[in-house]
Amino acid sequence: MTEVSPLNRYQLAELGSMLAEPARAAMLLALMDGTMRPAGELARVAGVSAATASAHLKRLLDGGLLGLHEQGRHRYFRLANDDVAAWLEAMALPHANRTASSAAARDPALCRARTCYRHLAGQLGVALCEAWLERGWLHAGSDGMSLQPAATDALVSAGFEATPALQLLRLRGRGCLDWTERRLHLGGPLGVAITGAMLDAGWLRRAHRNRALLPTPDGLRRLAKLGVRLDT
Q1: Which helix (H) or strand (E) holds 69?
Q2: Structure confidence at residue 91 (pLDDT)
């Protein structure tokens, strides 16, 4: 999963085979919220035994889709990087036309705002990206997306801490194609940092049962000041 060389047909087939097993797919989806989880928890998510989960996790590690964090005797699994998360999200796009409307009917909160790995996706993520590009607060160039100084002034005025807001100027983001909206939201380190700051400020809170993000009333008011509005 690097940009050093293009995939050959055998590598592409191997990636497809890793996703073809429902238990492995369930594990990857569970980690799309950017968390790190132990093997036992991922086994429960996938509905398999500990031994079976161990075999699946080894294959995903060997295939470059997962990373491992070891803390003492404990082992925690996570997606390997943001590129893997973007690839998994993009895998849903061929089916988006027939699944997006049903997904919205089943779980409108998930479509309204959610994490794509660790950055904001869904209607709110797309609205933010489009509004800030239109205002010139985001610049899209050959090296990705960057935040402009005028944006940090607006963020501080809306309630961001000054130092974290200025630190955003050093980060790069990228357009990530949203599988339900089929338009771009802001991904990469910049998208992750902005989403994290909004969570810390209480503009968003995490849902307990899935990767939906729930905008708070105060968060919606402050986002509206930044040109970000959700259609009701």
Answers
A1: strand 66-71
A2: 73
